[in-house]
Amino acid sequence: MSELELKAEKLDAADELAVKRAEFVREEGDGAVYLDGNSLGALPVAVPGRIEDVVRREWGELRIRSWTESGWWTAPERIGDRIAPLVGAAAGQIVVGDSTSVNVFKALVAAVRMARLTDPGRNEIVVDATTFPTDGYIAESAARMTGCTLRPAIPSEVPGVLGTRTAAVLFNHVDYRTGRLHDLPMLTAAAHLVGAYVVWDLCHSAGALPVGLDAHGVDLAVGCTYKYLNGGPGSPAFLYVREDLQDLFDSPLPGWNSHAEPFGMRPDYEPAPGAPRGRVGTPDILSMLALEAALEVWDDVTVEAVRAKSLALTDFFLECVEAYAPEGRVECVTPRAHRERGSQIALRCQGAGDVMERLIGRGVVGDFRRPDVLRFGFAPLYVGFADVERAARVLADVLAEVSTEVSAGTGA
Ligand SMILES: *Cc1c(COP(=O)(O)O)cnc(C)c1O
């Protein structure tokens, strides 16, 4: 056994979260390593049985009674409260439903409307220039609809780009490509200093690291639940509206589920108080209840413990890659400093698409982001240190193989 294999064994033996692996369905195949939980979280073992019960009994037998008797109607707020402690929010501020894209739209338009309540002249939306594309597309449309100018900026240009014209700021907490963690407390304070409202996209931080929404006075936040929260493909996203802003939250999608009296079927709209004001239409119950079952894995886990293990995993991966990979073949684009690192490692590498295909062929699953980035996500609830060592070793083999082929002129 090599020195790093021994080290992995020791780290796994000392890992308090190692027991959580048994709560997830294991991938088939010897030595399979799943490092794509930042794209689609693994399946918790509790989910299939729960979904079977929801379909067969709650839907099949109870039918429409389940809206009340099985708690379907209140699921968006109930599950929001289950997510709340994971992102540092007190109960009553999060509602689950719709996709992240839709929630970005609701939050951003509502933020502009809030800003204009006290200062109607505000006409600029600042958006993360390195954002996951959907946020940028939605921000462009929200700007057009509200008569604002869109101002793309990288977080390091803040606070310089902010001013008394700024109505709202939309940032990604962790950059999906590089894994860079942005300074949420500082950027939030900078937006507040000029009187703007801030919307945070937590897709790559919810379930991966402490966010502290309440502690840092964040106004609005959105996030998806199928990455580190393991809710399943297309599971509904969440929307956080800080308690003292809820009465000011003027949704651009005021569907009947957000009405104060949804079953009053009234022609006039009166928004519900509290988090349900962020709802739109009938919730997608099957996905939502799969998510609720998936969240049970968090019952005895703190996000602080998850963060500590995540940093240890990514540190160890970098150590193994440095030890094994051919010199100069990959370049880490994820910051080394812990305070600037999310829960993934992104490596820039020539022929990254080909390299990732071969890795997946050998059971090491990460993903490829154009043009040249290999992305590896580390979900601490089911990834261990031996997995990390093996992934780095297979990566080094593949890199050696690909560069040999390149120099022999047989591959590209
Ligand atoms: C994954 C991700 C999304 C996904 O949006 P959907 O509407 O759920 O498809 C949005 N924003 C960021 C930053 C993401 O990483």
Q: How are the elements arranged and paired?
A:
Elements: H1 3-13, E1 33-34, H2 46-59, H3 66-69, H4 75-83, E2 94-96, H5 100-118, E3 124-128, H6 133-146, E4 149-153, E5 166-172, H7 184-193, E6 197-201, E7 220-223, E8 238-241, H8 285-294, H9 303-324, E9 330-332, E10 344-349, H10 352-361, E11 364-365, E12 367-369, E13 373-377, H11 385-408
Parallel strand pairs: 1-11, 3-4, 3-5, 5-6, 6-7
Antiparallel strand pairs: 2-8, 7-8, 9-10, 10-13, 12-13
Bound molecules: pyridoxal-5'-phosphate.
The site of pyridoxal-5'-phosphate has 13 residues, from α5 and α6.
Describe the structure.
- The protein is α/β, with parallel strands linked by helices and 412 residues long.
- It has two domains: 135 residues, Aspartate Aminotransferase, domain 1; 250 residues, Aspartate Aminotransferase, domain 2 (3-Layer(aba) Sandwich), CATH 3.40.640.
- 36% of the residues lie in helices and 13% in strands.
- It contains eleven helices and 13 strands.
- The strands form three sheets. Strands 2-8-7-6-5-3-4 form a seven-stranded mixed β-sheet, sandwiched between helices.
- The two termini are 34 Å apart.
- The mean pLDDT is 96.
- Bound molecules: pyridoxal-5'-phosphate.
- The site of pyridoxal-5'-phosphate (PLP) has 13 residues, from helix 5 and helix 6.
- Pyridoxal-5'-phosphate (PLP) binds next to helix 5 and helix 6.
